[in-house]
Specification:
This protein is an alpha+beta fold and 83 residues long. It has 2 helices and 3 strands, in the order E-H-E-H-E. 29% of the residues lie in helices and 27% in strands. One of its GO terms (molecular function) is ATP binding.
């Protein structure tokens, strides 16, 4: 069944202690190419049949009104999952 992906990230001005902790630990495992990490959330919404524009609009609305905290987070992506 087709899935819609909704990605939510902290707003740029919001501190991200989990992202900072990950960034700090990456060099300890030999990964030093990254200068910053931001941690977000990914939601997968399954639909029956083909994904339509209406499904995508409803997924964005769900992201903005239920899946995220609009005070500190932004919905940054709503897309059809590539399997």
């Amino acid at each position: 069944m087709p899935r819609i992906i909704v990605d939510v990230m902290p707003k740029p001005e919001i501190l991200d202690p989990q992202g900072k902790a990950i960034a700090r630990e990456l060099p300890h495992i030999g990964l030093s190419s990254f200068t910053e990490v931001r941690q977000g959330k990914r939601f997968e919404l399954t639909v029956e049949g083909e994904v339509t524009e209406r499904h995508l609009e409803e997924a964005r609305r769900a992201g903005e009104e239920l899946l995220s905290n609009p005070v500190i987070e932004d919905v940054v992506n709503v897309s059809v999952a590539e399997d």
